[in-house]
């Protein structure tokens, strides 16, 4: 289901009708014949088969199995009501439940579909990089700053940019051995895509983090890390996408720290000590940083 939602904008029009029919009632589609789905979508069985190939499943039987598995997972959680949209009539308690459900689902689905071999390549590139540039505008800029701060704390040379001119000029001075990471929920943010294009032109390894794997950012990236960001009416793409992105960059950061464990631990202790005098004494305050 997450894969279908992420690929929906890039499907052909007839295939989009199939996708919407599947998304509207995946449990029912899992029990339907290919003929019934084609009729519900107002298209042909051939289009349904093309849709299956476009989303990366072998054929219609494989699609039914995958949908049945997704439906079963949702039913086991017994919280399908929380997965509904937020409405103006929801009381505050229901809003809290639905927001928490959407955020938790963003983390779970992002982790479930995250390609570990791709993540491993990105970790290796960042761990060995002479310099890491991180690009993000709007809500993505907050995540970019968080990743930069994490990498900086373990002694990795890194910079986070959100200003268009600075992004472009910084990308222009990268060299082979450097890494440029672009954060874009839609994968179509002009400034981020252009900065990655320039960074790649100058020999840097380029990495994209997006919820839409077939978006324009794919064309300028050596590796692509994908996220899943379910949304509701009162929550813009900024909210769930940011939580999903933070999940990915935490995995990336920990992977890099593992590769430089002695120096990372030393750097974390040094940075913890540097701000120690700026904390008020309190019984709940830890004496040492977490390992």
> Are there runs of 5+ residues with pLDDT below 50, and where?
none
CATH topology of the largest domain: Rossmann fold
% residues in beta strands: 5-15%
Sequence of strands across the biggest β-sheet: 2-1-3-4-5
CATH architecture of the largest domain: 3-Layer(aba) Sandwich
Main sheet? Answer: 5 strands, parallel
Description:
With 291 residues, the protein is α/β, with parallel strands linked by helices. The chain has two domains: 2-83, Winged helix-like DNA-binding domain superfamily/Winged helix DNA-binding domain (Arc Repressor Mutant, subunit A, Orthogonal Bundle), CATH 1.10.10; 116-273, 3-Layer(aba) Sandwich (Rossmann fold), CATH 3.40.50. It is built from 13 helices and five strands. It has helices at residues 2-7, 13-24, 26-29, 34-41, 45-54, 60-77, 92-113, 116-128, 139-153, 164-172, 190-201, 237-259, 261-274, and strands at 132-135, 158-161, 179-183, 205-210, 223-226. The protein has a five-stranded parallel sheet with strand order 2-1-3-4-5, with helices on both faces. The two termini are 37 Å apart. The mean pLDDT is 87. Residues 122-262 form the SIS domain. Residues 1-74 form the HTH rpiR-type domain. This is MurR/RpiR family transcriptional regulator. Keywords: DNA-binding, Transcription, Transcription regulation.
